[in-house]
Fold this sequence. Notes:
The structure is a single chain. By secondary structure, the protein is mainly α. It has one domain. It is built from 14 helices and no strands. It has helices spanning 5-9, 19-31, 34-56, 63-72, 75-89, 96-103, 105-120, 124-139, 143-154, 157-178, 188-197, 199-217, 223-233, 236-272.
Amino acid sequence: MFMRFATLATAITFAMPAVAQQSETNELFDLLMLPDIISIMREEGVSYGDTIGQDLFAGAPTAEWAATVERIYDYEVMEGMVRADFGASLEGEDLTPILDFFGSEQGQMIIGLEVSARRALLDDAVEDAAKDAAVIGLADENPRMMQVVEFVDINNLIETNVEGALNSNLAFYAGLVDGGAFDGALTEDQILTDVWSQEPEIRLSTTEWINSFLFMAYQPLDDADLEAYIAFSQTEAGGVINRTMFDSFDRLFTGISRSLGRAAANEMTMQEL
Length: 273
């Protein structure tokens, strides 16, 4: 769902929590394996940037475009921004139940499976196979898939991901406009209409991806382990960390998308010269 390299580099201005809680939020950040997730998201983003280049530009994406995408998806900047925003979002929250769950052997096993599955899905063939398996699982009302559906519903994963994707698409358009891609010919209402028209397709692809990702990730779990995760998600602590994760990454990728739009506008202008 997801160039604002210079802006991202100066955007880490969130108030930092007190020292004691900052230590806890850093511990939680690492327990959730967010550095690994951000690294994978960076790879996804670079691939997405190449796709944008192929779709938007008259010719093949240039080496300069590839270098721009690499700079925008700078790992250190992404990790620093998410870590700072993560800490600020959790300021004042009781982190003990969250640390207890994700710091347990069970919690670390679950997070490890999620990260492994996310990394595996970088391979298109693996992603296609995972989607096929999820479709069959839904059609057969596979018990594990039914647990996944419950988990997705409790955590409101479809709605939040669709919202994030729409925000990112809107930000990309805004970046194109900022960069002069349309010479002022595209109004705000036209942009909103176009972005909103994408909602059904985004909802379908989001649902498909989330179901396939989680069905693949949670295959090795015992039913009791996944039920424990579902139960935790229904607690106040589970809701806090779920919202924090989405807020942190939504702000990051909205910013990246706007920067990506500006860079695309610049590339389009250069190709026209």
